[in-house]
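Re-run with default settings, no changes from the original entry. Doing this only to confirm the output is reproducible before filing.
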Amino acid sequence: MTVLMLQPELHNKIWGGTRLKQFDYDLATDHVGEAWVIAAHSNGVSTVTNGKYRGRTLTQLWDEQPELFGGHDAHQAFPLLVKILDAHDNLSIQVHPNDKQSSEKFGKTESWYILDATPNAKLYYGHLAQNKAELTKQVENKAWDKLLRTIPVQKGDFFYVPAGTFHALGAGVLALEIQQSSDTTYRFYDFDRVDATTNKLRPLQVEEALAVTKVPHVDPILNQRTRMQGNTIMTRLLTSPKFTIDKLSVRGTSHFNQHHPYELFNVITGKITLTHDDETYDLKKGDNFIMLKDTGNYTLDGKGDIMVSFVTPDSYSNQELAYLDN
């Protein structure tokens, strides 16, 4: 077994919509905000759809057969989580804790690759306060016009969101989110929306949010680089302490060698054929899978784009890391 094809789990959100239909996901409502496409978390888990592990969850395989992933400590949780987010409306202005601050096994450092965006779409990314006292005062006074920092976005943009970053996706953004496997979010502000399921405002966690927000905000500097691998343009979007992300723009036959115990793949455009030994997989936009440690050499052919992510090896030097967590 080399490839684990995975079935996403869909989550309704107050800010969600219907654009996840374009990935051939079966939406039960018109407010689907998240597809947890590679997940082994208590709040969402992917299910294997192929081979002898069909019907097993990713959590079950990780816990019961660690050798498939190169081996790991018995108490270690699956470290990564990949989602596709449909922000039909603004998400709440929020922040996430780091590993030391989180009550979960991981903090929540994340990233966004913008799959699509409506005209004039934007992100809320960072804040304008210069110190913690100013941040606290403006939050208490609800001076959002003085505090919120917006950035226009378009298809193909990439953002790194370290834990402690003040942020939110704006309305009209469709994004692939690669992150640590955590679901801890502290809300500063939710645009005074009423949750139709409770007829109440959604709860805020202002005190907790203030405690973990980095001040002042500093944009990380991306250290991106591109090279050719056969007929594929390989772009290293991110090398962070938590995960590394590559974008593969496949434009014909290309040969690869997997160097990591397991890698996560998300097909975001096109149709691509994956071949390994005598196994062939016809992949399309919306397919998600994990390549296991026994892969070795494999071939991609066709035309499309794939996002590949993996846990950053300890052997990477500090010079290779674009970001260092506080």
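The helical segments are 58-64, 132-140, 144-147, 206-212. The radius of gyration is 20 Å.
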